[in-house]
Amino acid sequence: MLSALGSIGVGFLLGTSEIIIESLPGLLVQVPPLMSIRGAIGGAFSARLSTALHLGTIKPQLRNNTPNFKKSFIAIMILTVILPVWIGGLSYLVTVLFNVGEGHHLSLLGFILIAELSSVISGFLQALVTIFLSILTYRRGLDPDMVVSPLLYTTGDVIGLFSIIFVTQALIISGVGLI
Amino acid sequence: MEVKRIIKEALPTLVLASTISVFAGFLLNSSLTMGEVVGILIITPPILSIGGDLGTTFGARIATHLHSGLIEPRFGRIRLIYINFISLFMSGLLVSAISGVVAYFLRIVIDPTGHLSLVDFMILSLGAGSILYVSILMLSLFIAFISFRRGLDPDNMVAPLISTTADLIGTGMIFVVLTFLT
């Protein structure tokens, strides 16, 4: 119920950014995959953090943490950098193959640039929020699995979509040729 | 090297999930060519997310029942599965109906010129929704049974795959229902 309400918020955001979406044909193709990998990577990261906190392989503190903590963080950031290249490339391919926008569509560079930048920004923000919330809930004696993961699946979509709109607007304003 | 192992385990599922999702994005984009843009953009995310939530919840419950030996991985009229299925489906429809109404009023706020009526919104959310919910519930039951029989933990692979498959079926159903509406 809560997450359905959250995604109506996502829909509202999509609805209000209709002008950007219509001015850049093909952009919408990569919106669902970017949002869903945001949720998948974030969910897996929070599950791993929670397990590690319970096992004691990660300490509930922000500074001077274990090598284990750094490794998990590096691993999800690498995934966050690799996947958008695949998503952007594939979205471009689908756009060209199915003739979305009849020849007038986002360029390959535009697809990958928007995907990469928005993914890195939202991925980094989400990782910080996850670390902070997991440590906080664990210190209070709560189970991060019950609190953080459900919260992330809903906020992941909102953060993901916000960063896509933000990056696209910024690129349009800075005059990068997206078409 | 732990970093390598995490990436090796996560990457295939994520690549598959994002590939499925790109086609969902394409279908969503195709729906926009049917005239109304803003309304479709508002109603789509809640339908997809309800579908994904129902599928993953059902899958997780079946997995727990399987692990605790309450049910066996065989298809048939098992009471416990039947009750879970019906109650999740009904709650999905209820939230869908509420989403349809809320989406209609949000559309009026953002774009008063849109032509989809409240009835159209209800047909979209309940019609596309019910087909999506039934198929995603059956699919997650199927995946949970198959993976349990093979000795895999259903909890591991099911969640990301079910939610992206919900995206694909959901956007497809919205496209089909829109075709009938226009």
Describe the structure.
The complex is a heterodimer of chains A (about 180) and B (about 180). Chain A has about 180 residues and is mostly helical. Chain A has a single domain, classed as Orthogonal Bundle (Tetracycline Repressor, domain 2), CATH 1.10.357. Chain A is about 80% helix and about 0% strand. Chain A has helices at about 1-15, 20-25, 30-55, 65-95, 110-140, 145-175. Chain A is elongated and about 55 Å long. The termini of chain A are far apart. By secondary structure, chain B is mostly helical. Chain B has a single domain, classed as SLC41 divalent cation transporters, integral membrane domain (Tetracycline Repressor, domain 2). Chain B is built from five helices and no strands. Chain B has helices at about 1-30, 40-65, 80-110, 120-150, 155-180. The longest helix of chain B is centred in the middle third of the chain and has 32 residues, at about 80-110. Chain B is globular.
